[in-house]
């Protein structure tokens, strides 16, 4: 019996005033998306309408999620609305799961017009926690500012959305599902694909899997401990590190994706990855790593819990890219880092006579640099590193780079890091996060701080803290001019650079879940003398932090006694 075509319905709605996407799309409490009538539908329609109608008709898009609470419901709505808005084909991960790097990979592989990723990254998941929608464009990378502004403008005047409420898909069934729609000449197609396979194929072309497998299985086997933090990375870790590269199955923990990530924030840092830290401190493992919910961030630990600072990690990768076949074949161009990331990679770039690009925070700023062939490796202090193989930061790729370096040098994590410090000097670095601040208080504090550092007299100022004297060399509000298309991004962080190359950076973060503002303070101090490379980071940076607290008055202005998180 022939089934009748599925109707396309137009639903009247009213705009929401709070749908401007942030650094990583639109993040709000799960209850907002779930409970506010049409909130999700409005944003999805705004996103789809931001794509030119001629490009949208019959095009292919990718959809994936990190498995957090509300993802399955949201995917169903996105499928229904994509069909009604003329999208020709959706490629969706099995059970709705795709890591952010895998989405970028698939977009590029199948030449899709873009992809929708349901994630709030390292933010907690669950009914009382956070949810997010992120749109990646045709190069596989996050939406640039122009696209996000277009989405926001549509959202402000939206009066209706189109949907096929009777369309139902089965996310658990691999393969194609075709649907006939009213007034549509071609059927709408949904393809449910293996979450790992396309991404795994790409990694095989980048790395020497044989060398890594020998490292993990040979007579001098490196014992590893990998924590997927109950996010999307579980299937990737099991399939790639265990099945493909031979690591024992018990090397990987927390590999079942859970809607609430087991009740813990899926954030790979020393504060939230405590089970990994404890496991590594026991001395049984030579390499440890954790991933965030959507798999674009990572943390590396060596034997006995030796912590690799993310800013050091990207610099060490940069200095050792010849350990990876992809870079031996493709060559290495320039490097990129965010303004908040330490300048450790700058010294590597200088030694290699390569360009170094300093950008605002947010991976979208690296897209043009990579597309134009200027950059081979980019990194952020927030545990994100990636290369031109895709247009996202990539946690598992970063782990495989580290394992490649260890296989090539036959050295431990700590040995590799200390050898790097001996050659280039050590950049002591830390970040203070003040979360959940009153937005007005945070705004005025940053405004007043900018007035202080913009005063001409400030650039001559000296700060004495204990036996340390810091002389301000320059201070500004960071402004970025894209070397490819000339677009300008202003107000990207307050920078203070001292005469000894120490730095302080203050930023208001744009990646929260809509619950107050986050102010981040970054401190960096360079030490050339190897005899002084084993000091406690907080002891070294204490004087700089004291200066930061004094000039910002952050404790007095916010009523806080200290930061929520120190990284």
Quick recap of the structure?
By secondary structure, the protein is α/β, with parallel strands linked by helices. The chain has 19 helices and 27 strands. α11 packs parallel to α13.
Radius of gyration: 24 Å
Determine the fraction of residues in helical runs and give it as a percent range: 25-40%
Kindly report the average pLDDT value: 96
Number of distinct beta strands: 27
Multimer state:
single chain
Major beta sheet, strand line-up: 2-6-5-3-4-9-8
Distance between the termini: 62 Å
Number of distinct helices: 19
Broad structural category? alpha/beta
Q: Strand share of the residues?
A: 25-35%
Q: What is the general shape?
A: globular
For the biggest sheet, the summary is:
7 strands, mixed
pLDDT below 50 for ≥5 consecutive residues: which ranges? none
Structure description:
- The chain has 567 residues and is α/β, with parallel strands linked by helices.
- It is built from 19 helices and 27 strands.
- Strands 2-6-5-3-4-9-8 form a 7-stranded mixed sheet, sandwiched between helices. A 7-stranded antiparallel sheet has the order 20-21-24-25-26-19-27. It has a 5-stranded mixed sheet with strand order 11-10-12-13-14, with helices on both faces.
- A hairpin with a 3-residue loop joins strand 17 (375-380) and strand 18 (384-387).
- The chain is globular, with a radius of gyration of 24 Å.
- The mean pLDDT is 96.
């Amino acid at each position: 019996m022939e089934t009748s075509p599925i109707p396309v319905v137009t639903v009247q709605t009213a705009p929401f005033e709070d749908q401007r996407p942030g650094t990583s799309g639109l993040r709000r409490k799960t209850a907002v998306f779930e409970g506010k009538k049409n909130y999700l539908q409005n944003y999805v329609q705004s996103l789809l309408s931001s794509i030119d109608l001629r490009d949208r008709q019959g095009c292919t898009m990718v959809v994936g999620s990190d498995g957090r609470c509300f993802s399955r419901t949201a995917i169903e709505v996105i499928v229904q609305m994509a069909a009604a808005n003329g999208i020709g084909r959706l490629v969706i991960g099995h059970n709705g799961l795709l890591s952010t790097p895998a989405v970028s990979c698939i977009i590029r592989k199948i030449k899709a017009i873009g992809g929708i990723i349901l994630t709030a990254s390292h933010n907690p998941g669950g009914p009382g926690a956070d949810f997010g929608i992120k749109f990646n464009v045709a190069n596989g990378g996050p939406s640039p500012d122009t696209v996000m502004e277009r989405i926001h403008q549509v959202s402000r005047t939206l009066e209706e959305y189109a949907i096929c409420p009777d369309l139902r898909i089965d996310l658990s069934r691999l393969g194609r599902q075709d649907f006939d729609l009213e007034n549509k000449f071609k059927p709408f197609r949904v393809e449910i694909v293996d979450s790992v396979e396309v991404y795994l194929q790409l990694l095989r072309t980048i790395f020497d899997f044989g060398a890594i497998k020998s490292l993990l299985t040979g007579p001098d086997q490196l014992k590893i401990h990998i924590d997927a933090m109950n996010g999307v990375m579980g299937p990737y870790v099991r399939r790639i590190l265990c099945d493909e590269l031979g690591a024992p199955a018990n090397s990987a923990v927390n590999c079942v994706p859970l809607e609430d990530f087991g009740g813990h924030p899926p954030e790979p840092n020393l504060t939230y990855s405590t089970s990994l830290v404890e496991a590594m401190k026991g001395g049984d493992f030579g390499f440890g790593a954790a991933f965030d919910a959507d798999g674009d961030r990572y943390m590396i630990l060596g034997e006995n819990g030796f912590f690799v600072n993310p800013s050091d990690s990207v610099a060490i990768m940069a200095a050792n890219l010849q350990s990876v076949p992809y870079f031996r074949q493709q060559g290495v161009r320039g490097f990129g880092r965010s303004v908040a990331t330490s300048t450790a990679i700058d010294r590597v770039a200088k030694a290699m006579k390569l360009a170094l690009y300093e950008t605002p925070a947010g991976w979208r700023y690296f897209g043009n640099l990579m597309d134009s062939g200027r950059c081979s490796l980019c990194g952020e202090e927030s545990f994100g590193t990636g290369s031109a193989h895709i247009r996202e930061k990539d946690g598992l790729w970063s782990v495989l780079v580290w394992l490649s370096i260890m296989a090539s040098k036959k050295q431990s994590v700590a040995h590799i890091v200390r050898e790097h410090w001996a050659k280039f000097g050590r950049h002591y670095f830390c970040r203070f996060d003040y979360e959940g601040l009153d937005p007005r208080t945070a705004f005025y504090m940053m405004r007043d701080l900018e007035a202080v550092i913009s005063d001409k007299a400030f650039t001559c100022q000296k700060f004495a803290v204990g036996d340390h004297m810091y002389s301000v060399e320059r201070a500004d509000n960071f402004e970025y001019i894209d070397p490819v298309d000339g677009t300008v991004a202003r107000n990207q962080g307050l920078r203070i650079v001292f005469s000894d190359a120490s730095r302080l950076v203050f930023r208001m973060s744009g990646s929260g879940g809509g619950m107050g503002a986050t102010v981040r303070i970054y401190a960096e101090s360079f030490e050339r003398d190897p005899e002084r490379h084993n000091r406690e980071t907080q002891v070294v940076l204490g004087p700089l932090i004291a200066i930061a607290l004094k000039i910002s008055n952050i404790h007095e202005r916010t009523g806080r006694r200290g930061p929520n998180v120190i990284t």
